[in-house]
Amino acid sequence: MLLQAKPALVKAMPERPVMVEVRRLKKYFPIRRGIVFARKIGDIKAVDDVTFEIHKGETLGLVGESGSGKTTVGRALLRLLESDAGEIILDGEDFRRLKGKQLRRARRRTQMIFQDPYASLNPRIPVHGIISEPLEVAGGHSRKELRARVDELLDMVGLDSSIRNRYPHEFSGGQRQRVGIARALALNPEFIVCDEAIASLDVSIQAQIVNLLEDLQHRFNITYLFIAHDLSMVRHISDHIAVMYLGKIMELAGRDEIFDDPQHPYTQALISAVPVPDPEVEESRERIVLEGDIPSPANPPPGCVFSTRCRMAMEICSQKAPDYRKIEIGHYAACHHAAGAA
To answer: pLDDT tens digit string along 278-287?
Structure first.
């Protein structure tokens, strides 16, 4: 199945209401030394001052190298991890401050699709039990209603209802991921975090799952945070793309704009690694190779965290952290070199 690219963004799109608003989000993991009287000696800054928003019914692609903090952002948004500072506004509600019944009610509007479709499914429970579990926890459904809803969800994700009594190990990776998607849809969520949801699948199956996610989004107006490594796949499904490095957002812009006019050197390097189908264009393109490894989030470099690997680094880059600022409408970057930055 071929990927169906989203139509180009139009100016009216940003007028959609904001579904998810994140402001200065931080998540640090303490580093401790000692066994009996362990004392804190530092922090791993997994997410450090992250800000973005996602409009209702749209997809924000979040990309970056392993260890950049993408998954931590996704888990913090759903409060699978409690963040240390910042704001998470979910459709007008301060999600970080909700407790008790209010939190349980808000959680029904959010779900997560995990990277490993086998590890995220209980191998001892058949498909019917896996998909119906959220409905059973929510309560208020008879056995007949649960069966009908499970069959409906299986049909939504392209699986036959006859497989309801089979177990996860009896399916392929793509089928297991469809079961995971069906489970995520059980309570009609408005916001779903897709955490590397296609990373462990074959390329052809990845295309099918991406097309399925897009179809579900169009049918039910779902908002996605799509976390991935593959920039070419992210370009197909996303309306906007945020590039993350060492716990920080380096650049955020519309999908086409970030590919056509990347402002941050890190974004430029990532995009240069995406192959182009045209052999002549591919041969003439400049490939930007990043030297060295991503620094430790426990000891990030001073100034700009990307300065140790940046081909354009100047003295100021290792002394002063650049502001994350607007370059133009809908385009933000944290770089001293970015156009429009002071």
So the answer is: 676 666 677 8
